[in-house]
User: Fold this.
Amino acid sequence: RRARQSLADWIAMRKQAMRFSRVWVTILTEENDMPGVVALSESLVRTGSIFPLTVLVSQRINATLRNQLYRHPGVGHVIEMEDLSPATDNENWGLLHAFGLTQYSAVCVLSPKTLVFRNMDDLLLFQLADRGDTNAAAAAAA
Assistant:
């Protein structure tokens, strides 16, 4: 009975999360970061996050890897981004794309080299002061 309640609570929270359109975001600019993106998505699922992972994908990523992302069950959305920078600084420029994700009410950007060991949904549930502009915050766990 307890497991059913937990599952029912998780489903209800997942529906609420989707209604508020809050997402984790990571940026894939190098093909060798693909295993990290997969590990990140699986660690978010394993820790019980109710929020989907959105992956911003560089045009430099080959079609095979992109298709793997589209089919991966831990990835909620894949957004292809334009490469705006020299090849040496594409990841930093990719962060600018995260600020343009206005279809979401909140985003939290995670490095593709991140592994999540405990649930961090509070970061997306945290209410920032509404100033009528973009709020940005950085968070790290020790």
